Each structure stands twice: as C-alpha cells, then as structure tokens.
Amino acid sequence: MIDLSKTIDLSTTYVGLKLRNPLVASSSPLCEDLGAIRRMEDAGAAAVVLHSLFEEQIEFEADELDRFLGDASERGPEALTHFPELTRGVTGPEEYLEHLRKCKKAVRIPIIASLNGSTRGGWIRYAKQMEQAGADALELNIYSLPMDPDVSGEQVEKNYVELVKAVRAEVRIPVCVKLGPYFSSMANMARKLDAAGADGLVLFNRFYQPDYDLEALEVVPNLVLSNSHELLLRLHWIAVLYGAIRADLALTGGVHNAADVVKAMMAGARVAMLTSALLKRGISYMDTLTTELLVWMGDHEYDSIRQMQGSMSRNAVPQPKAFERVNYIKVLSSYAR
Amino acid sequence: MPSTPASTRPMVTIDGNEAAAYVAHKINEVIAIYPITPSSPMGEWSDQWSAEQRPNIWGTVPSVIEMQSEGGASGALHGALQAGALSTTFTSAQGLLLMIPNMFKIAGELTPTVFHIAARSLAVQALSIFGDHSDVMAVRSTGFGMLSSNSIQEVMDFALIAQAASLESRIPFVHFFDGFRTSHEVAKVEQLSADDLRAMIDDDLVRKHRARALTPDRPVLRGTAQNPDVYFQARETVNPFYLATPTIVQNTMDKFAKLTGRSYHLFDYVGSPHADRVIVMMGSGAEVAHEAVEALVARGEEVGLLKVRLFRPFSIQDFVAAIPHTVRAIAVLDRTKEPGAVGEPLYCDVITALAEADRRKKVIGGRYGLSSKEFTPPMVQAVFEELRRQYPKNHFTVGIKDDVTHTSLDYDPEFSTEAPGTVRALFYGLGADGTVGANKNSVKIIGEETENYAQGYFVYDSKKSGAITTSHLRFGPQPIHSSYLITKANFVACHQFSFLERIDVLKAAEPGATFLLNSTYGPDEVWDHLPRTVQQQIIDKKLKFYVIDGYEVARQAGMGGRINTIMQTCFFAISGVLPREEAIAAIKHTIEKTYGKRGESVVRKNFAAVDAAISHLYQVPVPGKITALFDIRPPVPAAAPEFVQKVTAKIIAGEGDDLPVSALPVDGTFPTATAQWEKRNIALEIPVWDEALCIQCGKCVLVCPHSVIRAKVYDEKHLAGAPAAFKAVPARWKDMKDKRYSLQVAPEDCTGCTLCVEVCPVKSKSEVKHRALNMAAQPPLREAEVENWEFFLKIPDTDRGVLSLSQVKDVQLLQPLFEFSGACSGCGETPYVKLMTQLFGDRALIANATGCSSIYGGNLPTTPYCVNEEGRGPTWSNSLFEDNAEFGLGMRLAIDKQNEYARELVLRLSGVIGDELTRALLEADQTTEAGIFAQRERVEMLRLKLSCTATPEARELLSVADMLVKKSVWIVGGDGWAYDIGYGGLDHVLSTGRDVNLLVLDTEVYSNTGGQASKATPRAAVAKFAAGGKPAGKKDLASMAMSYGSVYVAHIAMGASDMQTVKAFLEAEAYPGPSLLIAYSHCIAHGYDLEHGLDQQKAAVNSGYWPLFRYNPELAGQGKNPFLLDSRPPTVALRDYAYNETRYTMLAKSHPEQAKALLELAQDDVEKRWKLYDYWAHMPVNGGEKK
Questions:
Q1: Segments making up each domain of chain B, as ranges
Q2: Active site residue B949
C-alpha cells in the first residue's frame, strides 16, 4: 500500500505560519478545553484558532459582579455586606491568557488567539496581552451588527480599517481579520483591510440568528451548525479576492468534507477552517478528513496543496464572468429551462 | 491618648471590630466563631485574613472555624484551650449568654483567653441588636476578668493588654466595647505593630500555657466531679490568682505605655483635680463624658470623670485612690438594667468599694444608653447638675422621658461641646446605594491623607428595601471624643430626592451650612419641587444650596444608577477638606482599592464618573421666598388608629426618641395590622393591569412578596361609586360567571420588584412584550391608584366557602394576613409566609426564629401581620434564634392541654350546655374550613349559654373555650436556625409527633447577618466563612426528617410549581403530626436580579438541584408509597442554574480551577441525590408492586 502522506505534500503557509496541512480547527467551545486542543493536534489539525475573548463579556461580568455585590451591601445594620471579600481579583482576560499559555506549552502547532473587542483601548490592550502570552497570530473577530440607523456603511468600514491599523501598529505577530459578508463592496473592503495591514482575511463569520419559540412567544438564541451549502458564498469571494490583495485568505464556514477543502484551496484559500464538522463528528474527524484529502489528491494526481491553491480563482478560470452577475442570470435561466 | 512623637506606626482608619480582630488574629492560633450582630465582622475579618494566609506573630496562620452556635464555638474554644492552643472568640448578646456554661469552666480551670465582645442589649421585652452592657454584665459572675474599651484606639490597645494580662494571670478575660457605637464607628487610630505585639506577649507564658495542656505524653485528669467534702475548698484555691490580677493588669498597662506612649490605668480620672462631683462609668459613653467634662471644667466647674477600665477583678484600692479627695458626690452610670436589684452592677460595686474603704460619699446610680440610646454632653451636664442637689434623684435614668416612675433627668439639648473647627457632615442615602461605603472611604481619605482626626458612624433604619442610611462624619484637628450622632451639621447631603417628602433632612443643618442634593431637576427648576419645610429652612438658615444630577452623570459613565462616588466627589469639591486635585486623586486611589478586584472596567467607569461629577455640580440661587405648594407628608394617614397615631407614627417619623415611657407597652405586646399605615412609597415603577389581556390565573397575586397586588371576585353592585379609573371585568370562573373581577395594586406599598410581571403567563398577540401586567412610572399613577386601592379594600372579600383552596386561581382571592413587609424588594421568603396566612392565618400562631423573617415580621415600627374582617389573624412571637422549634412546640402543648381541659369542662357542664351542643362541640370535624367555621359558631353559642352561668367552672370554660376551635401552629425560620443553631431542637420537635408545622425559608446562608455559610449552603457556592467556595455538600434536612417515617416533609419551590407549593401547605397543615416544609427562597445573597427569582427557581428544579417532592406518612398507612417525587429528572446541567448567580460565579471568575472542581462534585451530588429519590419514588410498597 502506498503511503500517500509521503508522496503528497499537504503543507501550506498562512499569514507567515508554516502549516503541515490546510486544516485549521476554528474557534468553537471545543477550544476551551486543553485536552481537546491536544486531541486536535493528534488528529492532524495544522493550527487552532481559539475561542474568542469577548471584551464586552469581560466588562459585563465585572459590571454585574460589582452591581450585585453593591446591591447586597449596606442593606441594614446587621448586614453591611452579603458576600465575602474577593480573595483574588476576577480573572478578566487572565483566564483566557492562561489558557492560551497552556495551549502553547501543550502543543507544537500554531495557536491563533481570537479577539472580539468593544472599545479601541480594549482591542489594543488585549491584542498585546495575547501576543505576550505567546499567540502565534491574532484573529480579530469583528462581531458587531450596526443597528443604529444614524451610522452609515462608510463609518462602519472606517471603524474596521482604523481598528486593524491600530492593532497592527501595536503587535508584531500576524493579524487576521474575520469578516461577515455584508459589505456593500466586499472587494473594496478587503483591499482597505489589506492596506491597513491585515495579514489574513477569514471569510466569513457566521452570526447567531435568533429564532422564535412560538409556544413561549420568545426570541431564543440559535446557532445552527453550518453545512456544505454555505461554502459557496465563501468560495465565490475567495475566488474573487485571490490575487487581488496581498493578505492571505482563509475559508471558514461550510467545510465538511475533503471535497469542500479541495474547493477552498482551488478558490485560493491558504487554509480551510473547521468548526461545525468537528462539533458534529468529533475531533477525530480531522484525521479522516486528512486521509480523504490525500485519497482525493492521489486519485486526481495532485502532488501538493500549493499546486491547487488558487487554481480555480476568478483569474485562473477560463470564464471569469462565471463569478459575476451573469452567472446569476445563467443559473436562473438554466433552471427555467 | 497621644502617641509617642517618634512613632512610626501607621495611622489607620478602621472600626472597632477591625481593631479587635486585628490584634486577636495576630496573637491567637485557633478562632472559633458564630455570626451575631454586631460582632460578626470580627469573625469575618479573621476568616478573611486566614484565607489570605496572613500569619500571626509566630508566623503561622490561625485556624478559623465557624461553629453551629455560640454554644458550639465556646465548646470548641474550651477544647482548643485545653489542648494548648491560644484561642479566642467574638460574640455579643444572647451569643455570649450561650457561652456562659463554658465560661465558668474556662475560668474555673484558670485558662488564659480573651473573648472580644461587641456589647449588645439582651432580648428582653424585645430583641435589640444595638449596644449596651446587658450582655457583659450577665457574665460578671463567671470568673472572667472584664476590661472595657471606650474608643477604637482603646479597642486595639486593650485587646492586646487583655491577652498579655490573661497569659500572666491565668484569668480569662472578656474584653468588651459598645456594640455599634464602638464596634462600627470608623476612626483614625495608631496601629500596633507586630513588634509591639511581640514585645507585649511573653513567649514563656505562652509555653507555660502549652505545658498545662492535655497530652497523653503527660496525662492528667481535669474536669472531675467533686463532692461536698472538697468542692468548696477547691473553689477557694483560685483566690490568689484573682488578688494578683489587678496588679498584673496595671503592670501590663505600664509596659504598654512605655512601648506606645499611651498610658492607661485600672481607673482613669479626667477633670478637675479639685472636683466635688464625679461621674463613674465605662464604655463609649465615657468618651462623651470626657468631652463634656473638659468643656465644663473650662467653664470653671469642679467636675470629673472616672473611667473604669478593669471592672473584674474590681480593685477597691485602685478605685478609691483614683477619686480626688475633694469629691462630695458621685453618680455611677450603668448601661444596663437589673430589674429588682438594689442597683445596677457598677453602682453596687462603687457603693461596696467606698464602704469597704470607709470613704463616705454621696453616691447615686443611673441608667443611660440602653440599646444604643443616644448619650450626649447635655445628658452628662444634667447628671452633674443633679449631683449639685442636696437630695439628688437616685436610680435615675437619663436620655429618655420616664413619665411613669419619674426616674428621668431633664437636660438642655442646646448644650453643645462640639469643637468649633470640626467639620460635621450628614449624608442621607438609600440602603445599598453605596453612600455608606463611599463615606467610609472619605473618612479613610481624610484620616490617612491629612493631619486631621476623622470619625464616621452610620445609622440604618430597619427596612430591607427602601431603607434610609444616615452617615455622620466628623473631621478636625483635635482628637474626637464625640461618640454621639451629629445634631448640628455644617454640611448636609441628600442622595435621594424622594427623602425630602419623607423626613426632615435639614433639621440638623446649622445656620450657614451647605446643602447638597442629588436632583434630576437642575439649578433653575429645583426650587419649586422642594417641600415647604425644606424651602423654609434653606431660607431661614441661609444655607448654601448645591444640586447635581448624579443619576445622569452615572448613566453617562456607564455606572447604571450608582451615584456614590459622584456624590463623594461633590462633597470634597464643596467642603474643601482637601485641595480638589488631591481629593480626586485620593478618591481614585480608594476606588482602585475598593473595586479593583471586581475588574478593571469597574474602576475605569468610576474614574469617569468622578471626572464628570464636578462639571455637573451647580450652586442654586436661593429665591428668598417660599413657593412650595406641598410639605413633608405626615408619617401615617389620619385614618390610622390611635396607637398608630400616637406611637407608631412617631417612630416612623424618626422621633421615637421623644416617646415617653408611658407610651410603650409594658410587656412588649404590640397591635398587629400596622404596616398598612406606613406608606413608604418607594417604587419608581408599579405594575399596571391590562384587564382585557388578563386570564385571571392569580399567579401574580401568589408570588407578590409584599402582598401589594390583590384580586377579588364580587357582585356587580359593589362597583357603585367606583372611581373613574377603577377597573373591573367579568370573572372567569365557571361558578361565578355573573360576578366581577378586579386586580388592584397598592401604589404606595409596592416596591417595584416586577416579580408579578415576570410571572405573568400572558403575552399580547400584537406585541409580545406587553403582558397582562406591565411596569409603568409610579408618580403619574399614584393619586388615582391610591383612590382605586382604597375603593378596592372596601369591596367584600370573596366568600371562602365557594373557593377551592388547592387551586392557585382561587388562592388569589384569599385575603393575605401578611402585607407590606419591609423585606427586600422581590424577597423569596415572603410569598410563602403570605400564602400560609392566606390559607390558615385566621387560626395561626407563629413562632418565629430570629432572622430576616423576624425582622421584616416584627421589627418596629410596624408589622405586616394583619387581621381579617372578623379581627382574626396570625399571632406572632419571636423567642430566640436557637429555640424556635421548642418555642412553637410549647405553643402546641399549651393549645392541646387547654383543648383537653376545655373538652373536660364541656362534659362537666353538659347539663348547662345541652346534650346536642355538647356532642357537636366534642365531635366536631374540623378537617375542613367549613368544619372550623361551624365550630366557631358553636363556641359562640357556648359563650352565650355560659354567659348566664356564674359558676367557677363556667368561667374556666369561657377562658379556654376558644381552644375548642382548631389552631394551626407555624414554626417559621431560616436555614441558619433549622440546619444549624436550632437543629437539635427541630429534630426533637419532629420526633415528638405533635401537630406543628415547620416552615424553613431556605436562603442557604445566614441572610440577616450578612451571608455567612450555614449547613444549607450548597457546595461550590461562595459565602462568608466559605470564601473559597463551600467544600462540603448541603445537608439533606428533608431526608433526615423523613427517616422518622412519621413526619410530613415537602421540598417546595413556588417559582417552579406553585401548585405543588399550595398542595404541600395544605397537606402539611392537615397532617395531624409534625410537618416540615423546606422552601427554596431566592435571596439578594445569591447575587442576581431578583426579578428573575422565579426563573431561577425553575432552573434549580430543572437542574435537579432542588427536586420537588412530598413525603406523606398517611399514604403509607393507606398502603401507598409515601414519597412522591413531583419534579421531572434533570433536564439541564447544574452549571446552567448555578452560573446565573454571583455566589457561584465570583468563585468561577476569581478561582476558575477551584470552581470547576467544586462544581463537578456538586453536579455529582445532584445526580446521586436524584438517583436516590427516584429509587424512593419507585420503591416497592409493603414488599409488593412498585407504585
């Protein structure tokens, strides 16, 4: 039997990091467990993006702690307080940073820290702390839904760009930006972020989409795991952006099998990130996926991942128009037929 | 006392409890404690310092243990001492009394130790948490030495002197200081260093103490039983030790003086060396007398004060030597009362001492300051004036008006000895708004950043929601002896605008003083919103008037409604105590120290608020004329009954000090149904009923902790004359379709907790956030809703006879006989108490353990327990903390005995009563309300018949006839009582088989004393004395009770199943033996918004943490499984319940690993317990099939 791993080169690079393959375990609750991170490495993950540190949550928790401790104080002459003094300060970001340090000690694969800030100071402060804690790269998870009708799209974009510039100026490690797809001009936005110093763009974030409980008449938080159909939007934009910007591209959302990985690479992604697939099938699926990838590449006589990266990007296909509006029309007309 | 000029000891600003604990923790090895006000903080400090691994002077961290009672603490302490450890404890009041048996033993065995006591009133005609010497005087015969501290500095100093003297003399000591006035006063003191402590504690004596310890390596027998032949002689063996002790104490004081420059004597005299009149006293009052004596001597009066330091052993020689020879008359002031004695203890000792020393003086004794009653320089002056008389009043009182036995001295309240250079500031805040904390920080800032002396004292009212706090702050260049409240303030701040119409906040403002008001009205509009009295005083006293919209500043800074640091900044800015920049820097420093551990963002937001405060501070131009159309509201409405008008209203208005002795009941008996007259008007928002949407389910009425939302079903005719805004709709009851239904809110009694809105199951189909109840701003609704409420009360209650008491929908129509309590807004306990009164209140006797429920149930001025239309309602009493089950059992025994006697008399008098009525009375079925009501009618007939008979037996029967009607005994208390201090009694009562109902309001901590861990505290939760998360699991009290097989037990959570709760109450009361209801009670000590209390109860049940079940022994008698598991298997993880609460998350956020490990164990507890209960629920009955 031929050992395909010896004949096919799965390695890739991503924001300057040398990776043994393009499979990156992305941000999920699994990443909160050190044992799971170890198993990800064992199962073949080339890198891990940790769960996000949410500045807003840290602040919220601190404020709530302060509020409840305050509310339970000075209630009367017998109860000046209702809680013991904190024997140690709340961990704030420290719990995350300690986890990051432990991950770095526990595995050899790169660990990418993920950050969701809510204030300019917070983004910079935590980014620096993550760098100091040993993160190999940073992923800025700019997760906010602009709902204020007085805030224009232009302002939102400007905020993104300034944020990236600010963080870029403060840390030396690579900085990636995880984006949602909802920009009026995705390509222009990508170029601006590229110019602002982003080393990588991670396309695309998936947002919580609250659902309705019709019996309780309540809005309930809901996160549906992704499926392969969601891949298409991401393939589209990676194919468009590949070669048009300096920053590396990562595909996240909808990667569930080897074919999805291959498509991501062909569109131009440096890495394919997995979350839902691991949650559904377990961490060991990473190993299966690697094998399937090797088999596919062997069957189709590909020597390396690099060989296929961008091979079906917008500029590499004979009909670039396929990625443009006409594609939409054609699909509709072919369906009509 | 001045310190040595070269002293490098730090000046610290602390309270008396911290001062005592600081020394005690440094020079002991074992600390056994139990929480009791006002000494609890000493134990809490010790526990915290040990948790922080702070060592004692020998470099080892003292071991701190919380016991189940003070009796337990003293027992553990006795054992620790016998085994050779340096050991201490802290306590007060009844707690000290529980230690008495061990104190006799410890002293009898000549064992050195120091008990630090924040001296407090004993529960007599009433409980009081405040300070006097009743408790310490009750232990003066134990053989303990007794050393009194009068000030915070002395507390620190004497804590050390007592320990050093105890080690040398082998006599144990009570070191006492006044509860609250000294234990809680914050003052600037010089902190003793570890070197000082080492210099004073002789290690040889410590080793001798150890050498006397029990050890199998040198076995001895101690604690023998002795017979008449030797006990007496053996008792006399200790005499040399007591004789030597005064000298030892004085030598220790002298050694201390050399070390620190502070010189003390067994008796310290201050005043004129040629005094003809002298006061003898001890405690914080001596500081007041000191200040007054200095002022009087400066005016040329020949007066003096003798401060008693060492009360036991009493040294006659030293006492007599300390009194100037010129003294003609002596007044001895005792802060205690011994009814029936020839005089109070210190007075008697002084008389005896002078007699034995053959010194003839006129001596009178007087009482002052009971329960922290103010003791002021005018009172001192009055005592000296009394001593001038040829025939002064003996056994006088001062500080009250005794118009019954005329013991009291009159005094001139205008006599003032306040130092002119002292800043005297008064701050009115809302309980929990942070005002007190910020003021404590201000005292620290001024005490530690300037050369000034500083003092802070804080007064709270007795409500747990909407309470008013008053902070009394003094700063000045001279040492402050003023251990009394400020009555002449040069700065007054009111942090809550609504107080202006409740109390006279400017009463104490001096002419020319500054007034700072937190106001949403700006400087140009605020004037017209002030009550007439406030405007009048601002004009008359020419006050400088400032406003700030603290809420707006707080909101902008992201601080929510927290205004404390904003108001603190304004105080510094206006008062000029410190240069502004310096003050701001100091405030920020204390913010970092106070809030730093809670998170960086908390500090940042506070900084932002401080920075923004001054720019929002405005001086108000005072118009010079009164424009107000309203004034401070009367404390009670004109319709209130006479007692409420004359007595209760005075207390509500803060004028209780002015009530004379004759106004008060002689035996502590007060009328019920008084809370209805105390309209506190504290809700910013109240629920508004959408009658079209409402399905009339009654859940809101059931959960309302304050009984402010009520429902009635009534005939249409009662709507005649209804106010225009009064709402009524057709009743949705099958059998009452033709009647009307109204749901009404009491707008001035509601606390705005929103539980009713949260529990409402109905949502509008066009806007789901709109429910059948919705919160709306109270002020615009107040007037109309008051009218509606008054109309609603006049509508007759629904006839109980047509209702099904087991249906929540019907229970809403039962009149609550517990209303408008001062419990915390959204309290988790009171809905159960209210439900009990709805179901059984007309026949309930309540024995209430000390705790939250006794405070909101029975703390003056008013009580929430009330009466129905017939005048029946719960009768209530609180005995103690530890004996409540026994107390309630005693009620049952009395009822049963009197019932038995009444039945015997009925039989004996059957000739008069008639056979039919006799039989009916004796055979009455009272298992239903209808049966009880019928029996009441029979008893009325019996009374009628007996009223014509004047025989002794008939009169006897008349006096016990009411006992022929069923009575319901409820024994109510919290988990501290049921699981800890009262468990032995509770267990015994359960074993007796008597028909009592025990309701355990389980908040899982000692809520009333500030959240100390009990055996009900769950594993992984943080509590005081479990700062690292409680390592052990919660005691399964239910299982312990079920093990008898004869006790009805139910585990209930109203928020999870109101139906099961109602059912359990009915079954418990119906069960003819003991019943135990363990009720999940959410609490502010859990740390979340109590508006989510019911959801959290659901989560507790859904996680399996709080399974719902009932154990009914009667079912076993019917061949059924007595154990009914009413909740389903866990559907969510424990963390999904626990991590909604600060008591769990604060550990998770500060010690994540520890929290994780404990939570895993706690999850395991849940699973094991569920398996066990599930097995019980399915166990075979009588060896047969599973049921």
A1: 11-207+228-259, 265-409, 423-619, 636-670, 675-814, 896-964, 1004-1177
A2: no
CATH topology of domain B675-814: Alpha-Beta Plaits (3.30.70)
| Among B432, B1007, B1023, beta carbon nearest to A71 | B432
Phi/psi at B669 (5° precision)? -95, 125
Closest residue of chain B to A74, computed from CA coordinates: B432
Q: Is B70 a catalytic residue?
A: yes
Q: Which of B13, B17, B28, B37 is catalytic?
A: B37
DSSP per-residue letters across A24-68: EEPSSGGGG-HHHHHHHHHHT-SEEEEEEEEHHHHHHHHHHHHHH
Q: Which residues contact A191 (CB under 8 A, 6 or more apart)?
A: A244, A245
Which ranges in chain A belong to alpha helices (H)?
4-7, 34-43, 55-71, 94-106, 120-132, 153-170, 186-196, 231-241, 258-267, 276-281, 285-299, 305-308, 325-336
C-alpha closest to that of B172 among B142, B135, B200: B142
B423-619 and B636-670 share one CATH topology?
Answer: no
The model's pTM: 0.94
Active site residue B1143: no
Q: What is the mean pLDDT of residues B1-27?
A: 84
User: Residue type for B201, please?
Assistant: I
Classify B578 as helix, strand or coil: coil
Residue whose tokens read 């091979």: A311
3-state secondary structure of B1179: coil
Span B265-409 CATH architecture: 3-Layer(aba) Sandwich (3.40)
Contact A65 B598 (CB under 8 A): yes
Tell me, which fold does domain B1004-1177 have in CATH? Rossmann fold (3.40.50)
Q: Which residues contact B249 (CB under 8 A, 6 or more apart)?
A: B145, B147, B161, B165, B169, B266, B310
The verdict on whether B869 is a catalytic residue reads: no
The 10s digit of each residue's pLDDT in B702-747 is 999 999 999 999 999 999 999 999 999 999 999 999 999 999 999 9
Q: What is the pLDDT of residues A136-194, one digit of tens each?
A: 999 999 877 788 999 999 999 999 999 999 999 999 999 999 999 989 999 999 999 99
Amino acid in the structure at residue B1122? P
| Distance in angstroms (rounded) separating the CA atoms of residues A124 and B1187 | 64
Query: Which residue of the set B18, B66, B120, B367 is catalytic?
Result: B120
The alpha-carbon gap from A22 to the nearest alpha carbon of chain B, in Å, equals 34
* Under 8 Å between Cβ of B176 and B117: yes
Q: How many CB pairs under 8 A join A and B?
A: 169
C-alpha to C-alpha distance for B603 and B585, rounded to whole angstroms: 13
Q: What is the ipTM of this complex?
A: 0.94
Cβ–Cβ under 8 Å, residues B285 and B376: no
